[in-house]
Amino acid sequence: MVAAQEAAQSTKVLVGYATRYGSTKEVAEAVGERLRENGFSVDNGPMREVRTLEGYGAVVLGAVLTMYRWHRLSRRFVSRHRGALGNRSVATSTFFRGQGYSLAAHLSLKLRLTCQMRE
Q1: 31 and 100 in contact (C-beta within 8 Å)?
Q2: pLDDT tens digits, residue range 17-65?
Q3: Measured at the alpha carbon of residue 112, what is the angle toward residues 119 and 72, in degrees to the nearest 5?
């Protein structure tokens, strides 16, 4: 368990989001807070402001669905960072209001397991 905590502390996580009306931002912040509670170093921010994934060991991306498609800024982000995303643990989700904490717990567990497997 100590090794998993040390791995979590050394894993910096980007929680990026694309939102229309702010709900996805709220959920992304809840996800980030839950990851911090579990020992991860977390940066939250809109995907449109992310220039590089350098320094991040894991990435969580969240966006809304519009007409059964991910938000256009999310699609652009994935296209722009395709190569860098292939070298990291990545979790993607379409966020819905009220889903933040259960999603955050799931992602935290997934990232911990990923860190343990890398050791």
Answers
A1: yes
A2: 988 778 788 888 988 999 998 899 999 999 999 999 999 999 999 887 7
A3: 115
Name which of 25, 10, 81 is nearest 50 in CA terms: 81
Structure tokens at 65: 């669905």
Tell me which amino acid residue 62 is. Answer: G
Residue 109's contacts (CB-CB under 8 Å, 6 or more residues apart) are none
Q: Which fold has domain 2-111?
A: Rossmann fold (3.40.50)
CA distance 69 to 117: 33
pTM for this predicted structure:
0.72
Determine the residue type at 82.
R
- CB-based burial of residue 63 (10 Å sphere; 0-12 exposed, 13-18 middle, 19+ buried)? buried
